């Protein structure tokens, strides 16, 4: 069917001079960028229900900080704790007071740090 269509189109088409060649319906039409921009906007396929993807826990924060308690009461009043750094090795020259201080637990203060930690650890809380 297609071959018959192209043969009849060739027979019916007038043969103008090459300088005055008019576009025929059989020449491929190139899409310019302006015609693509004026067309309907593309839709995002992966974010159908708003968020745009899954939240992921920040793994470095998860390994260093742990929440204490359940955070009941006011919304998100969690306190986080971590260990002090610098006590694992090369500490034979340190005083016993310094080693005891490094062995203590450090707690996060309420405020901006807690908010940042909650955001980094949100999926795992």
TrEMBL record:
<comment type="similarity">
    <text>Belongs to the bacterial ribosomal protein bL35 family.</text>
</comment>
<keyword id="KW-0687">Ribonucleoprotein</keyword>
<dbReference type="InterPro" id="IPR037229">
    <property type="entry name" value="Ribosomal_bL35_sf"/>
</dbReference>
<dbReference type="GO" id="GO:0015934">
    <property type="term" value="C:large ribosomal subunit"/>
</dbReference>
<dbReference type="GO" id="GO:0003735">
    <property type="term" value="F:structural constituent of ribosome"/>
</dbReference>
<dbReference type="Pfam" id="PF01632">
    <property type="entry name" value="Ribosomal_L35p"/>
</dbReference>
<dbReference type="GO" id="GO:0006412">
    <property type="term" value="P:translation"/>
</dbReference>
<feature type="compositionally biased region" description="Basic residues">
    <location>
        <begin position="55"/>
        <end position="65"/>
    </location>
</feature>
<feature type="region of interest" description="Disordered">
    <location>
        <begin position="16"/>
        <end position="35"/>
    </location>
</feature>
<dbReference type="InterPro" id="IPR001706">
    <property type="entry name" value="Ribosomal_bL35"/>
</dbReference>
<dbReference type="InterPro" id="IPR021137">
    <property type="entry name" value="Ribosomal_bL35-like"/>
</dbReference>
<keyword id="KW-0689">Ribosomal protein</keyword>
<feature type="region of interest" description="Disordered">
    <location>
        <begin position="43"/>
        <end position="72"/>
    </location>
</feature>
<protein>
    <recommendedName>
        <fullName>50S ribosomal protein L35</fullName>
    </recommendedName>
</protein>
């Amino acid at each position: 069917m297609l071959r018959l269509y192209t043969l009849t189109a060739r027979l019916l088409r007038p043969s103008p001079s090459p300088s005055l060649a008019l576009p025929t319906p059989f020449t491929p039409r190139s899409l310019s960028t302006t015609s693509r921009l004026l067309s309907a906007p593309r839709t995002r396929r992966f974010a159908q229900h708003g968020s745009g993807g899954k939240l992921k826990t920040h793994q470095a924060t998860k390994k260093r900080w742990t929440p204490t308690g359940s955070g009941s009461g006011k919304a998100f009043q969690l306190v986080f704790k971590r260990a002090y750094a610098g006590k694992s090795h090369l500490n034979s020259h340190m005083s016993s007071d310094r080693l005891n201080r490094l062995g203590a637990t450090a707690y996060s203060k309420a405020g901006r740090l807690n908010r940042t930690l909650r955001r980094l650890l949100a999926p795992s809380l």
